[in-house]
Design goal:
The complex is a heterodimer of chains A (343) and B (329). With 343 residues, chain A is α/β, with parallel strands linked by helices. Chain A has 13 helices and 12 strands. Classes of the chains: A alpha/beta (343), B mainly alpha (329).
């Protein structure tokens, strides 16, 4: 069972048809999420991480659409047997089946809890809502479950917090409330979309350790989206590095950090300051900026900024694909062709 | 919140003093007084009045006194609950207004309810199905509603009713019920007449309200809580009604209080055109004939309604929106 993934994303393509042209926000992304494991998706702003997880939740809105690919999820409520995988792409986006999954088996922790809570409904109201959507319980019982959840995520006095509004809480408590709400129905998969960007660093650490603790207690799988490699190192079991809608490299967290194979991953890691960094020295950055999304691209998306690009325009004329270079790690780069062939 | 309301209520007497001065200055602003326009009216119909008789009347009504004395006498009477006598109608003003109050309220509230019942659903549909046929249809329809003056709509509909159905739709009662005592038949007759002015007056407000609702809701539909609600598994319809509609309504509900004076005054022209026995046309007539006490009372009444209406708005908004309610504490 542990070797079977809970979620398989295969060759996912999500495009936005705008007046100016088609933007391939997610361009052939594949990854697996295993039960009880944390997958970190890391990348710069605009690399398609958020669109990827919105595609998994099937929350892509017009003018966006999933153009290709499969998102197979091992659902308990939709599958006939425990080994059935349901392709979420095939389900109607606004249909009852997906609604039964969302908030229940797949839950979201959003980026900005301030904006994601309704300002005119109490925390309790919004928690009870999701409980009663997915569980046939009375108001009393739903309230009890909600209070238990708030206690679990570290609310000092959960009963009174039920009657509070989101804007009355501190940033950390707000995000805790969100985590509590996401966990109410014991989801199989938790999707956290940069959940710590909106809070300060101290609180961030608390929220992360809370997430880690709850994840271990409930054996929940998590897809954790961030641009912060430090957070990934703290939390993730596996890592997917994305750039411009494509996966550059994926593998176990140790491999990615200690043995990065893709020039982009290496560049990212170089740009993290460490305690060994000399004072007043310049932090290495990745030169250049992300190409405009409307630009027609051939070749490797990273080529313009790559320091290790191959001679004879190889990287500009041909597009590398993601291939396994050893048992765990996959890289999308021509530098590793020999290893791929040997594999 | 309670303290806030009390504070506002304490301010009311002061505002009323200011308003009474303004109302008085307004009705005194046109040259001449009630008697000059009365004499002109008499002259137009070929008769005239003795000089002595005019002076006697002027003394009787106190029109020969200085303006500030007239003001204090007027306010003094109002404070004792005596609204005075209409110069034009020769009847107590409280009686005149009282007679028309019920029908004015019926028309105003009817229009208000009609407007909201029609406009809010249209606004919601237009916003959730933006750029659909439905949205465009109501956009065009609404522009017609806003652009056409209500008295024009009234005239056209009256003409159509008369020409094609042979019915006269002026007034609020059929001839046999006008002076009859209240009975079920009279109520039914009132409803038969009331709907047309309600629709005519409502069309204008509906168009505006629907556009505002659409714009408000479109703003709300883009908010992140929408995505969160979807991620929770809420059905589209339920989540739209629970979150964005609620938030989009708040600014509208905060304007409900402003309708209070409009309910009484907004329909002057239509009511005149359709010969409705409401307060609006009475004010118009009082202003033309310089019936200063009647006009002054009605204007003062409108101003008071505006203050009370604003207070009601504030209370409603605080009651609906916890962000405001809890901020006050």
């Amino acid at each position: 069972m542990t070797n079977q993934p809970l979620l398989e994303v295969r060759d996912l393509q999500t495009v936005f048809e705008l007046d100016e042209g088609t933007v391939k926000a997610v361009d052939g992304v594949s990854f697996d999420v295993y039960s009880g494991k944390v997958l970190g998706i890391v990348g710069e702003s605009g690399c398609g991480k958020s669109v990827t997880i919105k595609s998994v939740l099937r929350l892509i809105e017009e003018p966006g659409r999933i153009a290709n690919g499969a998102i197979r999820f091992r659902s308990k409520i939709l599958g006939n047997s425990s080994n059935d995988m349901i392709d979420l792409v095939q389900l109607p986006a606004k249909g009852a089946q997906l609604r039964a999954l969302r908030g229940n088996e797949i839950a979201l922790i959003p980026q900005e809890p301030m904006a994601a809570f309704s300002p005119v409904h109490t925390i309790g109201n919004q928690l009870i809502e999701v409980i009663q959507l997915h569980q046939p319980v009375s108001d009393e019982e739903a309230k009890k479950i909600a209070v238990t959840r708030l206690k679990e995520v570290g609310f000092p006095n959960p009963e009174s917090a039920m009657d509070r509004y989101s804007w009355e809480l501190s940033g950390g408590l707000r995000q805790r409330a969100m985590i509590g709400m996401a966990l109410t129905c014991d989801p199989l998969l938790l999707i956290a979309d940069e959940p710590t960007t909106a809070i300060d660093v101290t609180t961030q650490a608390q929220v992360l350790s809370l997430l880690r603790k709850l994840q271990q207690e409930h054996q929940t799988s998590i897809i954790f989206i961030t641009h912060d490699l430090g957070v990934i190192a703290q939390l993730a079991d596996d890592v997917v590095v994305m750039y411009l809608g494509k996966v550059m490299e994926s593998g176990p967290v140790d491999q990615i950090f200690h043995n990065p194979q893709h020039p982009y991953t290496r560049a990212l890691l170089r740009s993290i300051p460490t305690v060994h960094t000399k004072n007043r020295s310049r932090l290495p950055t990745i030169s250049g900026s992300i190409p405009h999304p409307f630009q027609k691209r051939t070749g490797c998306p990273f080529v313009a900024r790559c320091q290790e690009a191959l001679p004879q325009q190889r990287c500009t004329n041909q597009t590398p694909v993601l291939k396994a270079i050893n048992k765990h790690q996959s890289v999308s780069c021509f530098l590793h062709e020999e290893e791929v062939n040997a594999c | 919140m309670l303290i806030y309301i009390i504070k506002r209520l304490l301010l009311l007497p002061f505002l009323l003093v200011v308003f009474s001065v303004i109302a008085f200055l307004l009705i005194q602003a046109p040259p001449g007084d009630f008697l000059t326009s009365y004499i002109a009216e008499l002259a137009a119909s070929g008769s005239s009045m003795e000089r002595a008789q005019i002076d006697a009347l002027r003394a009787l009504y106190g029109l020969d006194q200085p303006m500030y004395l007239q003001y204090f006498k007027w306010v003094g009477r109002i404070l004792t609950g005596d609204l005075g006598v209409s110069l034009d109608w020769q009847r107590p003003i409280s009686q005149l207004i009282g007679e028309r109050m019920g029908l004015t309220l019926a028309l105003g509230l009817g229009t208000f309810v009609f407007t909201w019942l029609i406009a809010i659903p249209i606004g919601i549909f237009s916003a959730t199905r933006k750029y659909s046929f439905f949205d465009y249809f109501f956009t065009v329809f609404n522009y017609f509603g806003v652009a056409t003056p209500t008295f024009m709509t009234a005239l056209v509909l009256m003409w159509i009713a008369f020409k094609y159905y042979g019915v006269s739709v002026t007034g609020l009662f059929s001839a046999e019920y006008i002076d009859a005592p209240w009975s079920w038949g009279r109520v039914a007759d009132l409803l038969q007449h009331l709907w047309l002015p309600v629709v005519i007056l409502g069309l204008d407000g509906t168009a505006r309200l629907a556009r505002v609702m659409r714009a408000n809701l479109l703003d709300e539909l883009k908010k992140p809580y929408m995505e969160m609600a979807r991620a929770k598994g809420l059905s589209e319809w339920r989540l739209v009604m629970k979150y964005p509609v609620r938030l989009a309504l708040n600014p509208l509900i905060s304007t409900i209080g402003w309708y209070l004076p409009l309910i009484f005054s907004g329909s002057v022209i239509v009511a005149t055109v359709m010969n409705l026995p409401t307060i609006g046309p009475m004010l118009l007539r009082a202003l033309i004939s310089q019936d200063m006490f009647l006009a002054g009372t009605i204007i003062l009444f409108y101003m008071m309604l505006a203050v009370v209406g604003t207070l009601i708005s504030d209370i409603l908004l605080a009651w609906l929106d916890p962000r405001i309610r809890l901020d006050e504490e």
